Each structure stands twice: as C-alpha cells, then as structure tokens.
Amino acid sequence: MAHPDLATASAQADALEEKMTRELDEMVVKSVLYQSGDIDPAAPRGRPTEAERKGRYFLMREDPRLQKMPEKPTLIDFFRYRFGPSAHLLQSARLAVRDGLPEKTVLACLLHDIAVFGLIRSDHGYWGAQLIEPYVDEEVSWAVRAHQALRFYPDEEVGYEYPEAYIRMFGPDYRPDPYVDRDYQEARQHRWYMTARNVTMYDFYAFDPDTTVDIEEFTDIIGRNFRQPEEGLGYDSSPSSHMWRTIIAPTRFL
Ligand SMILES: [Fe+2]
Ligand SMILES: [Fe+2]
Questions:
Q1: Residue 30: enclosing H or E segment and its boundaries?
Q2: 113 alpha carbon to ligand 2 midpoint, in Å?
Q3: What is the pLDDT of residues 78-90, one digit of tens each?
Q4: Are residues 230 and 138 in the same domain?
Q5: Ligand 1 centroid to residue 131 C-alpha, Å
C-alpha cells in the first residue's frame, strides 16, 4: 500500500494526465522518468481504453503544448523555448564576464545547471557535461561536471565556504555520497580545478531576483566557444544528440 500522500499525488497526476491527453488529438503517455517520484513505476498503470484510443494515435512528434522549436535549433533557442527560467545561469555568467574571467569559464558558468533547467535535476553536473561535451572545449564540460561535487566542499584559500543554503536545504548532518567525495578528491588534483572552482564561486552569488539578463548578451561568447551543429542541436549525429531531441520532444511515445 502506497503512502497516503503518494497515493493522492498519484491520483492527481493520473487525473491531470488524463485531462491533458483528452485535450490533444493524440495520446500522451509519459515515460517512467517523467512520473517517477509521483507514482510508483512498479504499480500497475491504467491504459487508455479501446474507446479512448479509437481513431487516435500516440504522440510521435513535438508536444503541441510546448513552444515550437525552430527547424535547426541553436543553444540559444533551447534557452528561449525549452529551459525553465534560467536567470541563475545568466547572472552567474554575467558576473564572470564582469570579473574578466576567461571565456571558457564564462561558458561553463552559463551552462553549469542546464540539466536542472532542461533535463534532469538528479546528478545534474554529470548530465549537463554529457549534453555539451561534443560541442565545447573539454575544459568547459569538465568544469560543468566537477562543479556538482565541488559545491559541497569549501576552499578557504579562494574564499569558498560550504553554502549556508545547503544547510537549510539538506540539513546540518547531510554528507555527500561516496562517489561525490571521490570525484571531489580527483577534481582537487586536476589541472582545471580552478575553472570548476570558479563556476562554484559564481554559482554562489547568482541568485538575485531583481537582476534580468538576456541570453543575447552571450551571443558572441557562445558563437566563439560552442560548436553549433549545422543540422541543429538534436539533429546532428553527436553522442549527445538524442538528449537534445528528448528536450525538444519530451512526451514523444518512442
Ligand atoms: Fe549546480
Ligand atoms: Fe548553479
């Protein structure tokens, strides 16, 4: 028997899904990951009845409830049409520009949490690095991956303290998992340590609700440091192309 709160959340999620599905000509069936945490993926799931299915197909294209993406999407299009409000990323990158950091560091700041805003929150540094790896200098993706672990470890020499916010968010007794600790130890010895450390420094300061920054501000830096594929992100044949396609069409049946 599921916990009552979970059961309620599950029923609400089902009702919402049913309503949304009825609004479309095509049927939306969400992936396990999409619903995990709201419902138990091992529990039996209701299926559309024959009557509901009659004359309708499963959704095999972009979700019409989302904003239309251009045919050949660029990184900036993903910021505009798919990522959640990403003021935090934009502010962090602007601060890095203001302090005269190298463009690679600015780009790493701009992209450090794109997994949170566009794909998957859990282990976001690793997902984010994988998304951008084929398109950026290795130093940039390395820093994006490493920032996740470094955030949990102070570095007094450069004035980085364990974030106060983490004490509020995770409790005073929270300790990172062993794999995070291992990746921190490795990063500490790495030649690009300071690039990733700088990402965590500017991460820390970039949560100002009153500052608005437009992604256009970084057009040139992106142009010089992000290898935009001609076919559009998601339609080239890089190792992470499918991940961009999933962001474009997250509810496609297959
Ligand atoms: Fe992060
Ligand atoms: Fe961040």
A1: none
A2: 5
A3: 999 999 889 999 9
A4: yes
A5: 14
